[in-house]
Amino acid sequence: MNMFSRFLIVAAGVAISDAARFRQQEPVAGYPTEGVPILPEHLDFADGVQTSDFVFDVLSRTPNQGQGGTVQGRESLNTPALQGQGIALSLFTVEEGGQNLIHYHPRATELLYVIKGTIEVAFTDTTGTLHANTVKEGQATVFPHALLHFQRNIGKGTAQYISMLNSENPGVMSFPRVFATLPADILAQALRTPIEDIKALQARVVPPQLSEGGVNPDYDGAAGPNGNAPVPALGGYIPKMPTGDKTKEELFTELLAYIKNKN
Question: DSSP letter at 257?
Fold first, then answer.
């Protein structure tokens, strides 16, 4: 046996010994504990969680409101019983024609169950294949880990579904956030589109909180204040009415013209 082989055996033995010793440590108080590494298997559940905490009201969560619907999420940050359990959930209520924006979860696979209505779902894989399906009330679908996907209400009336993710902090990266974090010239080059068009698109879809200085008067508001709530069907919401020196009669005339063109 040469020196390198002996080194590998010794190194493996040390690693196994360290891992065993770490797993035999007594549970530490609290989860997460600042500065202290902890594995979920050290605790049955987070320190301080009471029996009543294992039942939580999803509908009591303040909705993330978009013009196409709402999202009410439960994850470890707002639900102590989920800490260390590797799971989170969100309840979606989507208006007719509304869409949950194209997005992905960097830290989770998603399992979706339709409570009410009919939705169109799809994800795209790393081969460039689009996997599209229609999911009805009582049916479920899965979106593989970190792949781009969306949901859209294609039925009559409001659709409602619950999304379950195998991470207590799954994260979400939606299109507006992509446009907010990538420089306009990089997007222009990638999409072979004039930079002026990219900037106009950024202005329309990026909410004020993700804009420089926290201000964006050109944001259309469709995806809500966070820029990641369900958006309405195209033409499905009334745009902001212009302000200034126009009289109420002039504004009313413009509103009637909008409604006429819409129909």
Answer: H
